[in-house]
Amino acid sequence: MRRHIALVGAVLLGAQALGAQVQTKQFDLGAHIGQQVFSKGTALENTPFVGLDATYQLPWNPLASLIKGSSFGVGMLVDVSRPVTRGDQFDAVAFDFGDTTFLYAVSQRVTLLHGGLEAVVGVPVGRMRMYGFAGTGIYSIFLDPRAVKRNEKFTNPMATFGGGLNYPISASIGVRAQLRTVTFTNFDRNRLDAGTTYIHDQRIRDALPAADPTSKNPTNMQFSFVFQYIPGGN
Amino acid sequence: MRRSQLTLVAAAGAALVMAACQTDPISGPSKIIGEPLLDMTLGPAGNSVFPSFFGARITTAAARDTIEFTVRALPPTGAGATYQIMLVDTASGNATAATSRIIRTVRNRRPVNRDSSVATTKVDTSTAAQFSVGDTATTVVIRIANTAIPSYNRVVLRSSGEGAVPATVGAARTGFLSFRYKTGTTYAIFGNMFGSFAKATADRLPFAVSAYVIGASFWGDQVRISFRNLVRPPAGFRYAAWMVDERTGVAVRLGGILSPVPENKPLDDADLGTGAWYTSVGVSEAQVRGDMKALGVVPQDFTFLTLALEPYGGSAPPTRPGTAFVLSAAIPASVVLRSASPGKVFGSVTSATGKSLLNTTVYLQGIGAMVPGLVGSASATGTWQFRAVPTGVYKAYAIPFGDAVIRDSATVTVGSKMVGGSLAGDSVFVTLRIP
What domains are there in chain A, each with its CATH number? Predict the structure, then answer.
């Protein structure tokens, strides 16, 4: 767990360091808070998340000749959430007490980390700015060592795209409403099974409803509200 | 760094730290699924009697045209189902429906005198190569009178569920009970086999009790049993689970075996069928799913659960399980504890002619039971009593002292009621009249 905190802290500090190096109005920071909605096949329950992004507005803009006032930048993103796995997506485990057996669904709270790079384009819509982005990166899922009896994480590439609406409150502060999709690759739901160290029940195999169809490339959604800060904005 | 920047970073950092440090008891087995499983130990049944031949003999006359044999413990057939007798020549594979008669039927059923609980019914049927068996395991004595007997060398019993008697027998299995009466030119009875018959010995499959029980449990309103490697039932037979109350003889059929979840497909053709769940000798995996609520079963009113063999065919399954129990288990103690404490049955015997009432035999027999459950004698004034009678429906019978015939009977229902927070059996008074 400490490693997670240290990692997130390092990213935050790094972002601040970057912010100190950029020129005025060529760099903005966003702090996200929102809800993560997982694809059913991931066996993860929807959960809140927090995150951060930092975008550098490039001097070169491919849309400049097409849309007046448009912007183009590259940035990085990082967010963290702590979803709970859905125990009903895995085999039930049995606890035998003499002539009575109890069946349990086994869940665990995992730590999910997204990090990546993205390209952002924005166009003005009146006072507001509409923007879209696409990018790639990695996702890491840190399993709960209390549940799986070991320290284990798995990291795989992910792709992301989305968009949102930016409302400036002042020259340096704004708010954004954003929708992001995150597509995992090489996802294996079975690795989230926290019941592997228990005795799986073989008697009542339909004690739980059939698990949702899963995919190696599930796509999840993030709805977020973003506090935006533009260092040196005026 | 400006104050606004610092505030923003501090807020984001605090949120991340709180999220990362979130601990709760969610990890691990935290949610119980459904009702607890009340487990049973399902194993080979100690009270089973499988069908068998005995006492077979063939006439010594030159014609060799009569074979007589006894078939013991034939399970009941369903409505419209029958047993068939055929003769087979294992050299050529030729087969024919045998001309035969049942000359005697013995059923372990209602006793007719105080010394015996066996009712023997003599039946001299007309020529009948097919016959059905009623509501209990039955022993029949069969006589085959047929001049074709010397042309064959085996007697095979089949269930009509297999269809008509074939003209030839080959590698495909058929019939469930067989014996040999002729080898070359020598007539001798041997080779009694309960199991699927075929022309060649290597293709036959003698039945043996063999299964790995994964689990047998009451689960809420359901009975669930899971198996691996059940031996295929004899041809014409299938597996079915029953709940039986030995005290009253009541039996309820829970259903046949099914393929595993999620397929849940009936495996009633396990004797001869082909499919993913079958090997040449067994059923790789199967389950029983009994819905007690739908069947109106009150589990504590039963004493054991069994997986039995039953013949298929006809329009309905048998109404009783017979005695071909393969596996059985006592009802879990945690279920039995819910049953009512025993009731009492008191009564008196009266005589219209002033006959002595002393030592009049009075017995209670469960409405579906084969033998009496409780037996007693009346006093000089005709009173009698049974002080511990499990709840259920019984028949009370009276046989006067020195007599051999039931002179009166009455149906007795021992119900239950709540007394002090627990179920207690009723006290019932019954009057029986003898001449």
Answer: 2-229 (2.40.160.20)
- Residue A196, helix vs strand vs coil: coil
| Cα distance between residue A75 and residue A32, in whole Å | 14
pLDDT in tens, B180-195: 999 988 999 988 999 9
Distance CA B159, CA B306 (A): 22
Tell me which amino acid residue B422 is.
Answer: S
**DSSP SS3 for B220:** coil
Report the C-alpha gap between B295 and B280 in whole angstroms.
34
Q: With an 8 Å Cβ cutoff, is A16 touching chain B?
A: yes
Decide if A147 and B38 are in contact by the 8 Å CB cutoff: no
Strand, coil or helix: B350: strand
Task: Give the pair of three-digit tokens for residue A169.
Answer: 């409150």
B230 with B286: CB under 8 angstroms?
yes
Q: Mark whether B187 and B74 lie in a shared domain.
A: yes
Alpha carbons A107 and A117: distance in angstroms, whole number: 32
**Alpha carbon of A212: minimum distance to chain B alpha carbons (Å):** 14
Domain that holds residue B237: 212-332
Identify the pLDDT of residue A233: 65
Contact call for residues A192 and A141 (beta carbons, < 8 A): yes
Distance in Å, alpha carbon of B272 to nearest chain A alpha carbon: 26
Report if residue B114 sits inside a domain.
Answer: yes
Q: How far apart are the first and last CA of chain B?
A: 116
- HSE at residue B200, side-chain half, CA atoms within 13 A, is 5
What distances in angstroms separate CA A37 from CA A51, A112, A138, A177, one per listed residue? 15, 13, 18, 16
- Considering only CA atoms, give the Rg of chain B: 30
In this structure, are B64 and B201 located in the same domain? yes
Q: Which residues of chain B carry a pLDDT beneath 70?
A: 1-6, 8-9, 12-13, 15-26, 101-137
Sign of CA dihedral B313, B314, B319, B322: negative
Cβ separation of B16 and A8 shorter than 8 Å?
yes
CA separation, residue B254 to residues A196, B264, B335 (Å): 34, 15, 17
**Quick check: helix, strand or coil at residue B355?**
coil
Query: Residue B420 region, left (φ>0) first, then alpha (ψ -120 to 50), else beta?
Result: left
CA distance A153 to B153: 72
